[in-house]
Write a structure and sequence with these properties.
It is a single chain. The protein is an alpha/beta fold. It has a domain of about 80 residues: Glucose Oxidase, domain 1, CATH 3.50.30.30. The protein is about 20% helix and about 25% strand. A 6-stranded mixed sheet has the order 4-5-3-2-1-6, sandwiched between helices. The longest helix has 14 residues. The chain is globular and about 35 Å long. The relative contact order is 0.24.
């Protein structure tokens, strides 16, 4: 994630809302695995806990509505939080959907270096 000093491979969470234990498991390797998760359905700490239990080092949560409430236009594009000493990134609906569509059609993980 640009500006955070963190990079890794991105996987779409299954279920996408991460409100129950994930069927998608992190793949161990040379880069940190991140889970792409949609907002809604449960609390952020539940999403983080489920991603962490599946072996992900960070969760990237994208807004479930494109109304700018979660990520407003007068603040940075990405919020970076720590919950339970775990990295949580929050991005806009538009950016999250672009990442999700890429993961869905490419059958590859997004890797940033």
């Amino acid at each position: 994630m640009k500006g955070s000093g963190v990079n890794g491979a991105l996987y779409a969470a299954e279920p996408l809302d991460a409100c129950s234990p994930l069927r998608t498991k992190a793949v161990k390797g040379s880069v940190s695995p991140f889970a792409l998760v949609i907002r809604g359905g449960c609390q952020f700490d539940d999403k983080v806990r489920n991603a962490q239990n599946a072996g992900f080092k960070a969760a990237i949560v994208y807004d479930n509505e494109d109304n700018g409430v979660l990520v407003s236009s007068n603040v940075p594009d990405i919020f970076f939080l720590h919950i339970f000493s775990y990295m949580l990134f929050i991005i806009s609906a538009r950016k999250g959907l672009l990442l999700y569509r890429y993961l869905s059609i490419s059958n590859h993980n997004v890797v940033s270096h």
